[in-house]
Design a protein that fits this description.
The chain is an alpha+beta fold. The protein has two domains: 176 residues, 3-Layer(aba) Sandwich (Glutaredoxin); 127 residues, Glutathione S-transferase Yfyf (Class Pi), Chain A, domain 2, CATH 1.20.1050. The chain is 37% helix and 7% strand. It contains eleven helices and eight strands. The chain has a four-stranded mixed β-sheet with strand order 2-1-7-8, with helices on both faces. A two-stranded antiparallel ribbon has the order 3-4. α1 links the parallel β1 and β2. α1 runs parallel beside α3. The mean pLDDT is 95. This is Thioredoxin-like fold. It comes from Ostreococcus tauri. InterPro entries: Glutathione-S-Trfase_C-like, Glutathione-S-Trfase_C_sf, Glutathione_S-Trfase, Glutathione_S-Trfase_N, GST_Omega-like_C, GST_Omega/GSH, Thioredoxin-like_sf. GO terms for molecular function: glutathione transferase activity.
Length: 343
C-alpha cells in the first residue's frame, strides 16, 4: 500500500487529491437519522478539512450532539507489523503516551486534546475504514462521522458534513440562536458555490499542490494560481467584510482553515514563500477577526497543526524539526468594522 496521500500525483508531477467515497446524508427517513449521542466526529486538530467540520459543530452548538474524537497530530505506520505495508496515517494515542514519526524520528507526546478512546477501540483511523469495507482507492482521511448503531462511516466529505450540520441537526442545537444560524443561506448560495469552487482549487487544495508537487513545472503553476487567488481574495475583502458580503458563511469557514495555517506552516513547508498572509492589507485583518471568533478559535490548535505538518512527512522534513514561526499578534484589533468598500 502507498505510504500516504502524498503519493497521489499525476504523470506531470502535480498533486491530485482523491475524492471521498462515503457520501451519505442524515435523513429522518433514512438509515442515519439525526439523533443525539449516536454519531462520532473523528478529527485531527491539524487537518484543515477536519477543522471545517469542528468549526461548524461549535458554530451550530452541537457539542452535546456529536462525540468528538481527536487523533494524535503525527502520522505513524498503521500496520507496523507488516514490512510490506508502508502506509502511514492518523493514529489514536492516549494523552501522556508518545509516538515517533513514520521514519522513527522524534518523541511526540499526546496532549490533553487527544482522545483516550476511539470508536470500535480502533488504534488507527484506517481500522474504521477497513471495518466498514472501504473501497481500495479510498484514502484513510478525516473528518469522518461514525454511526455507533450502524457501525459504519456515514460521511467523510467535509464539504457535505458542514452542510449536514448546518441544516439537519437544528433541533439539537444548544440555543435557538445557534439553530437559526444559517451558513448557507438560500439568497447567497450561488455566490457561495462560486467562491467555494475556485478557493478550493486554487487555495485550500492549492497549497498542497505547491507542497506536494514533484516537478518544477507543476510547482510553478500551483504557486502562480495560489497567489493570483490570494490577490483576488484581498480585493474582495476590500469591498466587503466577508467573502459573500456582510454575512459570515461557510465560504469563510472553508477559507479560514488555510489562511490560519499559511504563515506558520505553508510558507516554509509548502514553499508558498512569495508573501505572508499578514502582509496583505485586507486579508490580515480578516484573519484576525475570524481568529477572535470563539467558535473558530476552539477548533484551532497551532501546536497540533505545526507538529503534524513538520513531523509527519519525512520526505519533506527528514529530522522533524518544527520551526518557531513568525510573531503575529492575532489578538490585535482587526479593524473590519465600518463601511465598505474601503477607501
Amino acid at each position: 500500500m502507498d505510504r500516504t496521500a502524498v503519493a497521489d500525483v499525476t504523470p506531470s508531477g502535480a498533486f491530485a487529491r482523491k475524492e471521498s467515497t462515503f457520501r451519505n446524508s442524515f435523513d429522518v427517513h433514512g438509515p442515519h437519522p439525526p439523533e443525539r449521542d449516536r454519531y462520532v466526529l473523528v478529527v485531527s486538530l491539524a487537518c484543515p478539512w477536519a477543522c471545517r467540520a469542528l468549526s461548524v459543530l461549535h458554530l451550530k452548538g452541537l457539542e452535546n450532539v456529536f462525540k468528538v474524537v481527536v487523533t494524535h497530530p503525527v502520522w505513524a505506520r498503521t500496520r507496523p507489523e507488516d514490512a510490506n505495508d508502508a502506509h502511514c496515517g492518523w493514529v489514536f494515542v492516549k494523552p501522556g503516551e508518545s509516538i515517533a514519526n513514520p521514519a522513527g524520528v522524534g518523541h511526540f507526546v499526546a496532549d490533553g486534546r487527544c482522545s483516550s478512546s476511539a470508536p470500535e477501540d480502533a488504534k488507527f483511523v484506517r481500522d474504521l475504514y477497513e471495518l466498514c469495507g472501504a473501497p481500495k482507492e479510498q484514502r484513510f482521511t478525516v473528518p469522518l462521522i461514525w454511526d455507533t448503531k450502524a457501525r459504519t462511516i456515514v460521511n467523510n466529505e467535509s464539504s457535505e458534513i458542514i452542510r449536514e450540520m448546518n441544516t439537519n441537526f437544528n433541533a439539537f442545537s444548544s440555543s435557538p440562536e445557534r439553530a437559526a444560524l444559517d451558513l448557507y443561506p438560500e439568497a447567497l448560495r450561488e455566490r457561495i458555490d462560486d467562491i467555494n469552487g475556485w478557493v478550493y482549487h486554487r487555495v485550500n487544495n492549492g497549497v498542497y499542490k505547491c507542497g506536494f508537487a514533484v516537478t518544477q513545472e507543476a510547482y510553478d503553476q500551483a504557486v502562480k494560481d495560489l497567489f493570483e487567488a490570494l490577490d483576488d481574495i484581498n480585493s474582495i475583502l476590500s469591498e466587503s467584510r466577508y467573502l459573500c458580503g456582510d454575512v459570515f458563511t461557510e465560504a469563510d469557514v472553508r477559507l479560514w482553515q488555510t489562511l490560519i495555517r499559511f504563515d506558520e506552516v505553508y510558507v516554509v513547508y509548502f514553499k508558498t514563500n512569495k508573501k505572508f498572509i499578514h502582509q496583505y492589507e485586507h486579508i490580515s485583518g480578516y484573519v484576525r477577526e475570524l481568529w477572535q471568533m470563539p467558535e473558530l478559535r476552539a477548533a484551532t490548535n497551532m501546536d497540533h497543526i505545526k507538529t503534524h505538518y513538520f513531523a509527519s512527512h519525512p520526505s519533506l522534513n527528514a529530522h522533524a524539526i518544527i520551526p518557531i514561526g513568525p510573531d503575529v499578534n492575532l489578538d490585535a484589533p482587526h479593524g473590519r468594522e465600518g463601511d465598505y468598500p474601503r477607501k
